[in-house]
Each structure stands twice: as C-alpha cells, then as structure tokens.
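Exam revision sheet. Question 4 asks you to relate a sequence to its structure. Input first:
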Amino acid sequence: METADIKSMTLEEVSGMLEELGEKPYRARQLYQWMHQKLARGFGEMKNLPLDLREKLGNRFSYTDLKLVRMQESAFDGTRKYLFELSDGNLVESVWMKYRHGNSVCVSSQVGCRMGCAFCASTIDGLERSLLPSEMLDQIYAITRDTGERVSNVVVMGIGEPLDNYENLLLFIRLLTDENGLHISQRNVTVSTCGLVPEMKRLADEKLQITLALSLHAAFDEKRKKLMPVANRYAIEELMEACAYYFEKTGRRITFEYALVGGVNDAKEDAEALGGLCRKLNCHVNLIPVNPIKERGFVQSERDAILAFKNKLEKYGRNVTIRREMGRDIDGACGQLRRRQKALG
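Answer key, structure tokens:
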C-alpha cells in the first residue's frame, strides 16, 4: 500500500495528522522542525520524539531522502553539480553555485521533460514523471548538509518544466518559504518557464513575490517554433500579454532568459526585435551563452557577437546581463550528467 508523503505536508497538515494519532500539539512543531530546519534524513534521527511515535510514523508515512549518486566540482569556480537518485530509481540533477551575495541552488522539478526544446539535453528522453514537493525540497536539504552552508537563493530551472508540475511547484514554494522551515524569502526564489501561458496567469493570480523567468530564446515566432515546440501553441504576443499580466498582479519584474546560439538567434535583427519587446514591459534580459551538448549541433555565439547583442539591447533602456559561465568543466548543461549516468547503466 502506498504511504503518504509526510515531507510534502504543511505544518497544519502535520498537526492534524498527529492529533489523529493522539499526540500532544507541540509534537507537530518538533517533527516539522526536524524535517525542514534540522534536515533529518529519517525518523530515527528525531531523538526528542518518543520511540513509539517514530515507529508509528515510519509505518504510516514515506520519508523522502535522496541518495547522492555523484557530485562533480568545478576546478574553475567551485560550482558543484549533484546527481540524486529518487526512491523509484529515477535520477535528477541539482547545481550549487557560490556567489558573493550568497549561495544559490538550482533544482529540478521533473524527471525528464516533454517540452522538446531543441538545445536542451533534459528533454531528449522525454518525461518520466513530475517530482513531489518533498523531492524538490530535498535537493536543497541534501546540498545544504553536504556543503555545510546556508542556501539563500533557489532557482527552479533544472530538469523539467516547473509550470508543467504546477500544484507540486506551488506547495514546494510555500514549504520552502515557510517561517517554520528554511524560511527563504519569496523574493529569492526564481521559477523558469518555457512559456505555458495559462499557468503563467494562474501563477500571477497567486500573487507570490517570486521572480518569473521566461525562456524566450527568440523574438520571432517562426524562429522560436524551430527552437521550442511550445511556440506552436502560444505566440510571442500571447506570451507578452501573460508577462504584462504577471507584472500587473505581482509588481515583480519579468526576466527574459535568452540563450545565444551562434548563427541562429544572435544577429542584429534578433537584438532589435527583442529590444522592441522589452520596450513594452518592465523586464530584465539575461543573455546565456549556450552550453553545447553533443546530441545537438548548436554552438555558442562568438564573444564579440554576444557583446554586440548586449550593447544593442541596452539602447532600449532595459537592464541586460550576460550570465556568468559556471560549471562548464562539469557537464554544465541541464541533463548531461543524468544522461551520462543512464548510459553507464
């Protein structure tokens, strides 16, 4: 019989569950703190809970504890890439990045992806399943234990399309930012999407204070369709309307993620078209020199082309950054480490 996932429960749900078991109310807070502050790997570590309660919990609930399969650390910048095994044997990737302003963790939201973006290794084998809130959280918890350092920023930009796992994503954010857990500020959480318009609007209506990052990658519909199949469902005009709606509801500036691919989307006319879109919105543009993957034929834009693209965009009065290249020597692109491990059997 499938057991309930206790690490995906809110404090209120944990309190109600323990009340059903006849436990005193303060036990719920103790249990919740063990899971989400002390980052216990199982009920056995919760020493201030009675043994009989720990046994009852173990019989009644599943407890997410990801298994570390592999960790690679960059010799250049200390970035760490983690490969974790889930309880069903599936694999997901996470990345830990150290910045002057704090530590960031990039987490996966699904095992694989069905969005089919042309330059992404995560989508090559399709979608296996979506992750539970606890499986998203435990990527952060496992990395925190391994590094011994607090995580201050979380980016849901690893394997998977977060808005294709909407309900679990929403609960993950609420647990992550709960004052009884890690209590990471919503303003320090970024969620990436390839552009699922209905879900973008739903997320806007939640009125969270997270940053929404749109993987745009082309400012022309036909060009975007060649790079991202989702563009066949939602035109750029619809995307821009959804972005404007998100800003209207939340007051949070949108980030455009734009992967620069040599000879594909890095020309002067591409920059001008993107600048035209930016002029209509309160947004920030993050230019990403694409990470080449062996399964695809794309190459990174030349440095001069990247700088010219940035300079052209800045003339439209919007903030533009070039993403720092981190972890290039450790299979930096999403999905590469997972695919290599699967190939090894």
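Marking note for examiners. Residues 133-147 form the longest helix (15 residues).
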